[in-house]
Automatic annotation (TrEMBL), chain A:
<feature type="domain" description="PTS EIIB type-2">
    <location>
        <begin position="2"/>
        <end position="90"/>
    </location>
</feature>
<dbReference type="GO" id="GO:0008982">
    <property type="term" value="F:protein-N(PI)-phosphohistidine-sugar phosphotransferase activity"/>
</dbReference>
<dbReference type="GO" id="GO:0009401">
    <property type="term" value="P:phosphoenolpyruvate-dependent sugar phosphotransferase system"/>
</dbReference>
<dbReference type="InterPro" id="IPR013011">
    <property type="entry name" value="PTS_EIIB_2"/>
</dbReference>
<protein>
    <submittedName>
        <fullName>PTS ascorbate transporter subunit IIB</fullName>
    </submittedName>
</protein>
<dbReference type="Pfam" id="PF02302">
    <property type="entry name" value="PTS_IIB"/>
</dbReference>
<dbReference type="InterPro" id="IPR036095">
    <property type="entry name" value="PTS_EIIB-like_sf"/>
</dbReference>
<keyword id="KW-0808">Transferase</keyword>
<dbReference type="InterPro" id="IPR003501">
    <property type="entry name" value="PTS_EIIB_2/3"/>
</dbReference>
From TrEMBL, chain B:
<feature type="domain" description="PTS EIIA type-2">
    <location>
        <begin position="2"/>
        <end position="145"/>
    </location>
</feature>
<dbReference type="GO" id="GO:0005737">
    <property type="term" value="C:cytoplasm"/>
</dbReference>
<dbReference type="GO" id="GO:0009401">
    <property type="term" value="P:phosphoenolpyruvate-dependent sugar phosphotransferase system"/>
</dbReference>
<dbReference type="InterPro" id="IPR002178">
    <property type="entry name" value="PTS_EIIA_type-2_dom"/>
</dbReference>
<keyword id="KW-0813">Transport</keyword>
<keyword id="KW-0808">Transferase</keyword>
<protein>
    <submittedName>
        <fullName>PTS sugar transporter subunit IIA</fullName>
    </submittedName>
</protein>
<keyword id="KW-0762">Sugar transport</keyword>
<dbReference type="InterPro" id="IPR016152">
    <property type="entry name" value="PTrfase/Anion_transptr"/>
</dbReference>
Amino acid sequence: MLKVLAVCGLGQGTSLILKMNVEQALADRGIDADVEHTDVSSASNMGADYIITGNELAESLTDHQAKILIVNNYFDMEEINKVIDENLVN
Amino acid sequence: MRFLEESIVKVGVEVSNAYEAIEAAGNLLAEDALIEESYIEAMKNAYKENGAYFVLAPHIAIPHARPEDGVKEASVSLVQLKNPVEFGHSFNDPVRLVFGLGASSSDEHLTLLRKLTMLLNDSVNVEKLINATTYEEIKKIVEMER
């Protein structure tokens, strides 16, 4: 199954918000994926197909093997849908 | 679990920088004994160490720390700023709404985040929260999402 990591600084709050909205966007498209949330330092040791995070943290994740997707407005479903459509939908 | 009740919402707060804005949102939670003072320090440290990533959307900051930093009850406060403040986020500055998140490890934490996400996913709500002048106006917006 596709694995997606939602990443924030502490893995406690903001990444959970992003996870909820990403799960919604994936469900709307019928994409079966495992979405987890974590903090930026744990993310480097976790395998994933995609990492979704904000622009501010993306720079510290560039060494990760996963494809990094950037969302600027975590509450904008249109932006999240667009990022998913451009990268995850064939 | 506490979510944007009158005692933890303040409208038209004047601060001069991001640290003061985080403090103001944290103080509302501390005054109601929802967090320890140590949690406010932890929120400011998280900002110092990880930057402004918690400015999640245009005008919206959600400062928080870890449950073990001193959260007594899962909670969300709101400080609406009189004058917008720069947090140093490349897209979402300046900040006008600061939601202080008392992050707990309970299921309530998830419930609160879901409520907050439902509220803020609607840009009309965000606009109204920014322009509200009284708690009553904010209460109406929050209650519509219940």
